[in-house]
Write a sequence for this structure.
């Protein structure tokens, strides 16, 4: 359903994303991993249409997405294709808007419903992410980080997107909450058939939630394949290094950069 | 990862925010409210006709009939001060209303579109900011003749940077918060994002800037009238009163200039204190 | 484990309780922290937000605000840290302990050069002549993997990456020649490959200097990999303390076990991800009984009414009414 061809982003002389190409099937789950500055978030933002690519194309459901200004109707069509959840759960919500109102607003963009229809749909969305009426009446600041991220996911689901992009969506959460959100995302994928695109540096989460993984370094894709293969038997030196630096039983931290340089 | 020290610093501040307002801000707010009331109802409250001359009773000291005494033509000073509140406050109110509305719109536009538009707005503001507002207003008044309309227009432009610069940088920050991106991705119309999300979130800052700006604008307008280029006699505008009273100072009768000057000072300080207090209260947490 | 049993510990945090004013009223943010670090050993303090791990570390440095009320004791080489006066505390920080923080940028003056930052502590607090200080700092920078020390010392903080700046922080800490290094989430903001570098540098410095380490982190795997013993905190209380090598197999507290199970593993394909319901509580929100009782799958009535005290099992401690203790472990400990 998503095809990315030779995607490229330049900021002046600096090439942030360099010829990134991949495809994501309907209901699939792909992770883009890499360290800070690898270009993974820029790639995601270009796919979502938040940033204009310097080159290449993003094809969704067989149609290329041209950059530029859109009419209201096109915007809504696009909204039903791709939604995104961001890293900072608090900044992802309007701090003045009660959770229920934020969801009702999102529903309103996509469905013409009478007031009680909107209420029912909001209740359904809240239920889908494990929140209830009490949280619906709250302002974002009264919620915990995990609850805020659930609201952001519910709001994205209001558009019934075919692809949900998660940009470091669990990175700012406590460990025990990360697992809850990962479990929730897995359930959403099974129940709604929404394809998932994870942008993350957390290889553990990748293993748990996606089918395929794409490793980026300095704006380029250095390795791409099924998760078990890439993480189990990494081929590219960078992927090997990435996997080797994850703490595990019996692991001792080593200075690798210097050794490589020496 | 949020750790406890963050809670340490934010909790007490959150308490202050929701708790009592500090007394100084409260007093400043009271003074501002009082003068706004005077501006609205002034002529009804004045004990005498502010323009009624009394040649037999010039430069009189305080008495039961004239609490603050009379001026050089025997007009009741208290009545003139009360009646003059409207003329004195209306002009800066117009200046701030125009510059705030226009400045906020400019700031949002620059922040939203960014790029060359933002650079153009910032550059233009720098030019305006570099030009002293009072001199601009005096020049305009000199060219178009005395009266308040021309100085109000000139000051409105001169005050644009005061509002726009601060609101612009806040708007840029706000515009790049992920909730705005989320709304865009949901297909929200831009006008809706502006009116329902960005503007209400920036409103406290706009209010604070407008309040602080009001004090300065009042001072500038009073100065223009003092120079004889704004309000014209026999208007009981305070700046004009300061000027009218000046010859009497030499005669040992400073009351007209003194009381009008004190009135200006009190209002300007009150607006400034209110602005600072509001800033602490409204922006303390989010800024 | 080959720990000398009778050596007096370098750091002994004993029943530490911290009250802080929140919303105007004093609230208990740390209920009970117990940590012991023998000379030269590494202990990891693990917990989620609100667990009190950072406050505990700050208390060791004497960095709590003046409004804090401290009960229990923190003893460094037998001396009470909360009992130190301001002058003694300065000397203590200038020579015996040093701390590395999560965000180095917030702890280095952005307007001054790296060299000034590194040398200042030596010349002012320890009265080292400046020429000698430069020589010493250059050596330490080389040790932490910054070979071009001359150039770096002329640079300002914004010119350095997060990983490099964290090395500078470590160098500053080592320049103190402390006996104990406190590291508060020093790698949380860094990439995994940089994290490995930084942890390797801390490990080498410890080995070379016989330095003890209190390592604060939310990452159990990392904690186990770089320390001798692991202390787990939840909602302001130490809930478990055990040898790092036995963490995975022998954790006795349900929270420790749940936390282990909630981390998706990169290497264990079969491992099922089990999330803990609810959210981590802060110390001041802890209920009367066991703070973890709301989220525990093995909760019983007594857990809600009575706060469990730390009780020993083998050479470990757990504060739980119903700890997991494996029969085989009992025999293993006696063998």
């Amino acid at each position: 359903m998503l095809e990315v061809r030779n995607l490229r982003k330049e900021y002046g002389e600096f090439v942030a994303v360099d010829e990134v190409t991949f495809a994501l099937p309907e209901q699939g789950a792909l992770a883009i991993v890499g360290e800070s500055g690898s270009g993974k978030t820029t790639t995601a933002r270009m796919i979502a249409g938040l940033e204009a690519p310097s080159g290449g194309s993003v094809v969704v459901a067989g149609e290329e997405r041209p950059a530029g200004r859109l009419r209201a109707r096109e915007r809504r069509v696009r909204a039903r294709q791709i939604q995104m959840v961001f890293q900072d759960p608090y900044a992802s919500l309007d701090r003045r808007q009660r959770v229920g109102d934020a969801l009702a607003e999102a529903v309103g963009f996509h469905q013409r419903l009478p007031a009680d229809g909107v209420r029912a749909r909001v209740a359904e969305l809240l239920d889908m992410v494990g929140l209830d009426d009490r949280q619906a009446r709250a302002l974002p600041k009264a919620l915990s980080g995990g609850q805020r991220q659930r609201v952001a996911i519910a709001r994205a689901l209001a558009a019934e997107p075919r692809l949900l992009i998660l940009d470091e969506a669990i990175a700012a959460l406590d460990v025990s909450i990360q697992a809850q959100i990962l479990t929730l995302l897995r359930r959403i994928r099974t129940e709604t058939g929404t394809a998932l695109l994870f942008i993350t540096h957390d290889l553990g989460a990748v293993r748990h939630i996606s089918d395929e993984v794409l490793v980026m370094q300095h704006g380029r894709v250095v390795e791409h394949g099924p998760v078990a293969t890439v993480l189990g038997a990494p081929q590219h030196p960078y992927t090997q290094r990435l996997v080797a630096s994850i703490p595990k039983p019996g692991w001792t931290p080593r200075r690798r950069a210097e050794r490589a340089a020496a | 990862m949020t750790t406890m020290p963050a809670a340490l610093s934010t909790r007490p501040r959150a308490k202050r925010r929701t708790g009592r307002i500090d007394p100084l801000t409260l007093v400043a707010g009271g003074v501002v409210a009082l003068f706004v009331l005077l501006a609205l109802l002034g002529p009804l409250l004045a004990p005498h006709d502010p323009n009624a001359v009394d040649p037999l009773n010039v430069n009189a000291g305080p008495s039961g009939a004239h609490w603050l005494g009379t001026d050089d033509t025997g007009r009741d000073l208290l009545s003139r001060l009360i009646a003059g509140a409207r003329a004195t406050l209306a002009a800066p109110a117009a200046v701030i209303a125009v510059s705030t509305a226009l400045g906020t719109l400019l700031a949002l536009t620059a922040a939203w579109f960014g790029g060359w538009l933002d650079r153009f707005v910032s550059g233009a503001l720098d030019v305006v900011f570099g030009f002293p507002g009072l001199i601009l207003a005096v020049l305009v008044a000199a060219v178009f003749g005395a009266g308040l309309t021309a100085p109000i227009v000139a000051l409105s432009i001169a005050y644009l940077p005061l509002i726009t610069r601060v609101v612009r940088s806040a708007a840029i920050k706000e515009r790049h918060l992920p909730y705005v991106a989320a709304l865009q991705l949901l297909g929200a119309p831009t006008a809706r994002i502006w009116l329902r999300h960005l503007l209400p979130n920036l409103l406290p800052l706009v209010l604070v800037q407008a309040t602080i700006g009001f004090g300065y604008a009042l001072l500038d307008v009073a100065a223009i009238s003092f120079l004889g280029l704004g309000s014209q006699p026999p208007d009981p505008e305070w700046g004009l009163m300061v000027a009218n009273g000046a010859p009497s100072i030499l005669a040992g009768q400073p009351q007209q200039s003194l009381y009008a000057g004190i009135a200006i000072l009190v209002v300007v300080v009150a607006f400034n204190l209110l602005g600072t207090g509001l800033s602490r209260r409204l922006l303390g947490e989010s800024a | 484990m080959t720990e000398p049993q009778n050596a007096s510990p370098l750091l002994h945090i004993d029943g530490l309780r911290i009250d802080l004013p929140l919303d105007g009223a004093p609230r208990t943010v740390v209920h009970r922290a117990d940590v012991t670090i023998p000379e030269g050993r590494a202990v990891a303090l693990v917990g989620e937000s609100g667990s009190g791990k950072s406050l505990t570390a700050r208390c060791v440095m004497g960095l709590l605000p003046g409004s804090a009320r401290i009960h229990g004791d923190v003893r460094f080489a037998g001396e009470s840290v909360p009992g130190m006066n301001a002058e003694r505390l300065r000397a203590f920080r200038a020579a015996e302990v040093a701390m590395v923080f999560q965000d180095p940028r917030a702890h280095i003056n952005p307007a001054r050069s790296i060299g000034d930052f590194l040398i200042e502590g030596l010349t002012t607090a320890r009265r080292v002549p400046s020429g000698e200080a430069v020589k010493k700092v250059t050596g330490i920078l080389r040790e932490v993997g910054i070979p071009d020390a001359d150039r770096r010392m002329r640079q300002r903080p914004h010119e350095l990456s997060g990983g490099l700046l964290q090395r500078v922080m470590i160098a500053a800490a080592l320049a103190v020649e402390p006996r104990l290094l406190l590291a508060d989430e020093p790698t949380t903001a860094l990439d995994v490959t940089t994290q490995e570098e930084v942890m390797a540098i801390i490990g080498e410095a410890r080995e070379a200097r016989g330095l003890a380490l209190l390592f604060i982190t939310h990452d159990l795997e990392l904690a186990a990999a770089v320390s001798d013993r692991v202390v787990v905190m939840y909602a302001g209380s130490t809930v478990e303390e055990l040898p790092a090598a036995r963490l995975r197999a022998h954790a006795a507290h349900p929270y420790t076990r749940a936390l282990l199970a909630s981390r998706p593993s990169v290497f264990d394909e079969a491992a099922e991800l089990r999330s803990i319901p609810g959210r981590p509580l802060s110390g001041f929100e802890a209920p009367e009984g066991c703070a973890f009782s709301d989220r525990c799958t093995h909760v019983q009535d007594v857990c809600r009414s009575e706060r469990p005290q730390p009780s020993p099992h083998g050479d470990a401690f757990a504060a739980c009414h119903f700890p997991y203790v494996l029969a085989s472990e009992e025999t293993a400990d006696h063998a």
